[in-house]
Design brief:
By secondary structure, this protein is α/β, with parallel strands linked by helices. It contains 14 helices and ten strands. Helix 2 links the parallel strand 3 and strand 4. The longest helix has 19 residues. It starts with 19 loop residues before the first strand and ends with a helix. Bound molecules: iron/sulfur cluster (SF4) and zinc ion (2 copies).
Length: about 350
């Protein structure tokens, strides 16, 4: 029986009719009990280790896709309605992918407007001078080995980090879920990048770097549950996949398919992998804390790991012949700071 079949049985928690068999927990659940247990799990994550505090100024990386929509919905309710905390600012990165990003931008804009969440859209074209489509076209001739997802992932991360840091956010929240985390774990093992395996954590403080601490409260929530959550809450689900996921497949896609096939009938394996990650991380911390020495990028001034002298973003831009990020970039988003006050006037 899969998660979406409807057994004519009672919910294992209350007396209502069950609507799903939740294979991960082995329980039959009604809609209300599923939603309650889903949200409780995320609230517990946030409370655990005081990942978020009432005074936090939070920036959420908000693509408008299923994961970021879920975390923004839950955090917004928690911070505003429960705590009366400072507003959350949602940031959508518009990479410039024809036939893809427009759909999630529409979803993101109306979602934030309906809830009065301040929403900022940062476009690759505006910040870096080129859309992702243009970068891929230029890159195709000079560097065919570098795929769209590499440009996209590196530059998007850079924008989010810099934006959050420059506007004085105290936490940057992203929607990475359990499936994303275990894929990264296997990818790091496949690449022999054991330092990143030791360093894994869903809360990244990066104390030694000028970064905003990052948290990923969906780290133990499988993608399948997130889809169910959106379905039951009648929240929008993006329909079109990114064209580059088909036309320029990367290793992550293969790892994802492998994990999906081996965990299909044994969903507990995903949690076993997470358990392994947590245990390895503890060993890494009690032995010798892995140290990433920092250099400051000669182009943009941002932090980068030794032995680099240019950060990955500036290196990619240089390879594509795109104008380097200059000193001005380091203050580029400062004006958005006023959003914290403006947002508190919103309903
Ligand atoms: Fe970016 Fe690749 Fe995801 Fe498309 S599939 S949005 S190119 S990371
Ligand atoms: Zn129930
Ligand atoms: Zn740089």
């Amino acid at each position: 029986m899969n998660s979406l079949q409807a057994p004519a049985k009672q919910c294992s928690t209350c007396s209502k009719g069950a609507v799903i068999y939740h294979s991960d927990s082995g329980r039959l659940l009604c809609k209300g009990c599923f939603l309650k247990s889903f949200e409780r799990k995320i609230h517990k994550n946030i409370t655990r280790d005081q990942a978020l505090e009432k005074s936090d100024k939070i920036v959420v990386g908000f693509s408008g896709g299923k994961d970021s929509l879920t975390i923004l919905e839950i955090l917004h309710a928690r911070q505003q309605r429960i705590f009366g905390a400072p507003p959350i600012i949602a940031v959508t990165i518009d990479e410039g992918i024809t036939g893809y990003r427009a759909e999630t931008l529409d979803i993101a804009e109306s979602f934030c407007a309906e809830r009065g969440i301040p929403h900022v859209v940062l476009a690759f074209k505006e910040v870096f001078g080129r859309t992702l489509n243009e970068m891929v076209e230029i890159g195709g001739d000079i560097d065919p080995e570098t795929k769209a997802c590499t440009y996209c992932g590196v530059l998007r991360r850079k924008l989010l980090n810099d934006f959050a840091f420059q506007i004085g956010a105290t936490k940057l929240v992203t929607g990475h879920n359990l499936d994303d985390h275990i894929q990264t774990f296997l990818l790091n093992l496949l690449r022999g990048d054991i330092m990143r395996v030791f360093k894994w954590n869903w809360i990244q403080d990066e104390e030694e770097q000028p970064f905003t601490p990052k948290i990923q409260p969906l780290f133990n929530v499988p993608a399948r549950d997130i889809v169910l959550y959106l379905y039951f809450r009648k929240l929008p689900l993006q329909e079109n996949p990114c064209p580059y996921s088909q036309s320029q497949p990367i290793l992550r896609g293969k790892v994802q398919r492998f994990l999906n096939s081996v965990t299909q009938n044994s969903p507990e394996m995903k949690y076993n992998l997470l358990y392994s990650m947590e245990e390895i991380q503890k060993v890494g911390n009690t032995a010798q804390k892995p140290i990433f020495n920092i250099n400051y990028c000669t182009d943009c001034g941002g932090p980068t790991n030794v032995p680099r002298v240019k950060c990955k973003t500036c290196e990619l831009l240089e390879r594509l012949g795109i104008e380097p990020l200059n000193h001005y970039y380091g203050t580029r988003f400062k004006d958005y700071e006023t959003l914290w006050e403006r947002a508190s006037l919103l309903p």
